[in-house]
Specification:
Blueprint lengths: L7 E6 L3 H6 L7 E5 L9 H14 L6 E5 L8 H11 L3 E4 L5 H13 L7 E6 L2 H5 L1 H6 L6 E6 L1 H8 L11 H14 L2 E4 L8 H14 L3 E4 L5 H8 L3 H15 L8 E4 L2 E4 L3 H14 L1
Parallel strand pairs: 1-2, 1-8, 2-3, 3-4, 4-5, 5-6, 6-7, 7-8
Antiparallel strand pairs: 9-10
Helix pairs in contact: 2-3, 9-10, 11-12
The structure holds ligand LIB3CWND and magnesium ion.
């Protein structure tokens, strides 16, 4: 089953009123209003107020609105949760989530703060503990409204000393583990940011790599990154045509007993049908 379209997730500091307003016009699938590392300590309270007003004010159309709060043991977590959960965004993003218990705690906290039923959770995966225990973190989806996990390459690099070099060889095994955990527990997995927002070609290569590894989308930091990533994570015309043929073949009543067929010289089996339907749903949702 396909969840929401999450090709592009644009972060914007909650302290930046201009960015919060601009988000209403941008083609990102998800907008993340940031209260954690992207906001200076002196601006935390004002940013929280501004973000809550933006969530309550609406005007963002079909975009998914998520808010990243500060970490559990920070001086701002309790006030963030109280104010943000009550405003009812589509999701609250928990930075530096380390365990299944962290997700369950966040779920309890947002419920106690009066979050509406539609408010889900995202977990940022950005510490060595989270990279080791990612399957346990994803397993919290059975008991908590965990909708997605998001990689945080800057914190991963900081905490592991791995380098963010082209092709991300140091991160590859962790990226793949993240995809496995997400698929096992039916949550979305969103690839991390590409810091050099003036390098469109580098961004495209990294987005294609994430897509080919199985990611559902990519987190972004600048509006200039949206179009490239939306294109990379949307099915191509050739993929859509191929998917249509698969559905036509296996949906045809006369082929009810057919398990294997050929399309354009390639073998397809009935097991490809789900993937083909997902491709068509993605294409429809991206229109
Ligand atoms: C990186 C930036 C600070 C650059 O900002 P700026 O210098 O203002 O860029 P431009 O002059 O090119 O901006 C052009 C116009 O676009 C608007 N803008 C810029 N960025 C955004 C944005 N993210 N969302 C919405 N609108 C944006 C500017 O206001 C200009 O508008 P206008 O004046 O009308 O023309 C900035 O891009 C930025 O702050 N980016 C996001 C930073 C952030 O949120 N960081 C936290 C998340 S990153 C993360 O999670 C890392 C993770 O945790 C990890 O560990 O890896
Ligand atoms: Mg981080």
């Amino acid at each position: 089953m396909m969840s929401r379209l999450r090709r592009s997730m644009l972060a914007m500091p909650g302290s930046n009123a201009r960015a919060l307003e601009k988000g209403k016009t941008l083609a990102a699938d998800v907008l993340m209003f940031e209260l954690e590392d992207g906001v200076a300590e002196s601006a935390k309270d004002a940013a929280r107020e501004q973000v809550v007003a933006a969530v309550r004010g609406g005007g963002y159309g079909a975009r998914e609105i998520v808010v990243r709060v500060n970490v559990f043991d920070s001086p701002w977590y309790a006030a963030d949760i109280a104010a943000v959960a009550a405003a009812g965004p589509d999701a609250i993003v928990i930075p530096k989530a380390n365990s299944r218990e962290d997700i369950l705690r966040a779920a309890r906290d947002i419920a106690a703060a009066g979050a509406p039923a539609h408010t889900a959770l995202y977990a940022m995966i950005e510490t060595p503990r989270a990279l080791f225990d990612i399957e346990k973190i994803a397993s919290a989806a059975a008991e908590a409204p965990l909708a997605a996990m998001v990689l945080g390459p800057n914190d991963i690099a900081k905490s592991t000393r791995a380098r963010l070099t082209p092709g991300r060889p140091a991160l590859l095994s962790w990226l793949s583990s993240a995809v496995l955990a997400a698929r096992l527990h039916d949550v979305d997995i969103i690839d991390g940011i590409y810091n050099d927002f003036n390098d469109a070609e580098g961004l495209r290569r990294e987005a294609e790599q994430g897509r080919d590894l199985g990611m559902d989308g990519k987190m972004l930091i600048h509006p200039s990154q949206i179009a490239v990533v939306n294109e990379v994570f949307a099915p191509s015309p050739a993929e859509i045509a191929f998917a249509r043929r698969i559905v036509e073949i296996f949906d045809a009543p006369e082929n009810a007993a057919v398990g294997v067929a050929q399309v354009d010289g390639r073998m397809v089996e009935r097991l490809h049908l789900d993937g083909a339907r997902r491709t068509l749903a993605l294409a429809g949702a991206a229109d």
